Amino acid sequence: QREEYGLDRPIVALQKALERAKEEEDETKEELLAEILRKGCLFLGAVCNDDKDLGLSSMIAEQGGLELILEACNWFRFHEDVANWGLWAVFTLCFDQSQIKTQLVQLQGMETICQLMKNNPTSLEVNRHGLALLFDLMRENQNTEGIKWDPWEIRQRALAAGLHGVVYSAMNEFSDSMDIMMMGQEMLVGTGFQGDIPIYHQM
């Protein structure tokens, strides 16, 4: 079935582009490779967005797609567009997919999410997608049947990765964003944040 969809081909091509980017010294060429990887993240996310019963998210993850996206985001961690579409792709891959969420945590995905938010503090979309991912990972009503999922461990890993700092920073920077303020407030309250929580300011 994987061969039928051919999902391994774009993933392999993107892996080669990332390997080349790591060796590239020409800034112009490196920027072109970053754009290829941005579009690659967009493609992988779009493929599994609303895939319903096709199981494309699982196929992409099994072919190394999730690991590739995280590696691209880590390499281009100060590149706003790669970070933005990389986080969006991870969100669509993980949505309602407990097995992939488990893989994300194992791949230090929470640490990557927080680092991207720290590195791109003025990007609304990076912070919105990052918060949405963290919020989804820390939801209590996860469908975890058949997999090992420890909510307390997830919470501790998020805190160790700098959850409070990135959430507080995003709420301060984007206090007019209802999505960010609502998710941020719930996460701060639910994880024992000590201090004044920023409030929503309608523009």
Protein model, in words:
With 203 residues, this protein is mainly α. It is 71% helix and 0% strand. It contains 12 helices and no strands. Helix 9 packs across helix 11. The mean pLDDT is 93.
Secondary-structure-derived class: mainly alpha
Q: What's the average pLDDT?
A: 93
Q: What coarse outline follows from CA principal-axis ratios?
A: globular
SS elements, strand count: 0
Q: Please identify the oligomeric state.
A: single chain
Percent helix among the residues?
over 70%
Uncertain spans, ≥5 residues at pLDDT below 50?
Answer: none
- Topology as a string of helices (H) and strands (E): HHHHHHHHHHHH
What proportion strand?
A: under 5%
Distance between the termini: 50 Å
Give the secondary structure arrangement, pairings included:
Blueprint: H1 2-5, H2 8-23, H3 27-48, H4 56-62, H5 65-75, H6 80-94, H7 98-106, H8 109-119, H9 124-137, H10 151-161, H11 163-173, H12 178-190
Helix pairs in contact: 2-3, 2-5, 3-6, 5-6, 6-9, 8-9, 8-10, 9-11, 9-12, 11-12
Write a concise synopsis of the structure shown:
The protein has 203 residues and is mostly helical.
Question: Which terms would index this structure?
Answer:
mainly alpha, 203 residues, single chain, 71% helix
